[in-house]
Amino acid sequence: MMAVSTRPNRGAAMLEIIIGKAMATIFLCAGQVPQNFRRSTMRLVVVLLALVMIGAVGPLQANETQTAHGVVVLQYHHIGDDTPRVTSVTAAELEAHFAYLKEHDYNVVSLGEAQQLIASGEVPDKLVALTFDDGWRNVYDNGLEVFKRYRYPFTIFVNPALMAETPRLYMTWEQLRELESYGAQIANHSNSHAHMTWRRDGESEAQWLARQEHDILAAQQALEEGMGSAQPRFFAYPYGEYNPALAELLIEHDFVAFGQHSGPWGTHSPLAQVPRFPASAQYADLKTLATKIASLPLPVRSVEPKNMVLGHEQNSVEIRFAAIIEDFRAAQMNCFYQGQQFQPEWQDEEAYFTVEDIPVGRSRVNCTVPSLSESGRFYWYSVPLVRPNAQGRWPD
Ligand SMILES: [Zn+2]
């Protein structure tokens, strides 16, 4: 199958901008210079314009198969060697990651810059964003020197109610403000890091949603008071757990919200379900992390099931997603679930497969397929799932 771009002709759009700028320059000059100089300048400009047209159109046509790039958002928690390994990198590992990004010419952007580029639809290659969940004290204690050396922008998602309850575990507002001067933005991780989709006994759907809305907005207010300034509206779901009602609520309140399913943030990612790659523990190894940092966002238009939270009885589920097939061969897609590897079936542009033996708790299906135009790189898409126990709960 040939990879054919269906996007509007960017070459033409860019040429219009170039010609427009050149013409504006001619008219500006024309009013201020003598007649004979004006004619020769005009000729020169026409020649230059012709050269610009040849130069500008040539490579853009040759590059008509556009690879859809995205922003790879890395997710960290603790920095330390005496913290739970499953959510930790050591300071040395973090420094190795930062050095890798620098040596390989990655552009580390803030989430705000990432959001703007995604919204523009013109996402340059090699963009990475850095995030730290929970605001642990060790991020300040063990990360400060690394942050100072690299001056990369990064985002810390905090829980203001927990910070007030057990201050010894978390960074103070003063420490967070100090990190702000080395590139940090502080964002919302809910007030108390609860499982947000869990309803209380006897709570109606409307009461549950109102409680979540209050929690999200109270956390935002508390963190802006703590920081002494307005902070961008980014939200990380505790444990990466959400449902359609929560996603809709966050969009209503102008948040971009991040999960814990993996893949790059692309122009097709729903803004309240943005993926991130875990970069701690076994994922900190640069041998495998490098592949993820170089990955491309699979352009997915829609996915089933809509709700990552399954019923307790559901120990199997059919997953379907509609992908835009431009730069990969459907037959080369591989998916991975609980140590098993399989290939999805395809119906036109829709991939589908059934996963079985779904355990109680969180799990995720990852699908990857090689890019045709960029050798060694993979499109990546992940579907998060969570299956409750008989009481409608699951472990952290
Ligand atoms: Zn968290």
From TrEMBL:
| Molecular function terms from GO | hydrolase activity, acting on carbon-nitrogen (but not peptide) bonds
UniProt keyword annotations, A-Z: Membrane, Signal, Transmembrane, Transmembrane helix
Q: Which residues form the signal peptide?
A: none
Query: Which InterPro entries does UniProt cross-reference here?
Result: Glyco_hydro/deAcase_b/a-brl (IPR011330), NODB_dom (IPR002509), Polysacch_Deacetylase (IPR051398)
Concerning SUPFAM superfamilies, the annotation shows: Glycoside hydrolase/deacetylase
Which residues are listed as membrane-spanning?
42-60
Protein name per its UniProtKB record: Polysaccharide deacetylase
This protein's GO cellular component annotations are: extracellular region
Which BP terms from GO are recorded?
A: carbohydrate metabolic process
Residue ranges occupied by any NodB homology domain in the UniProt entry:
126-343
Q: Where in the cell is it found?
A: Secreted
Residue ranges that the Swiss-Prot or TrEMBL entry lists as coiled coil: none
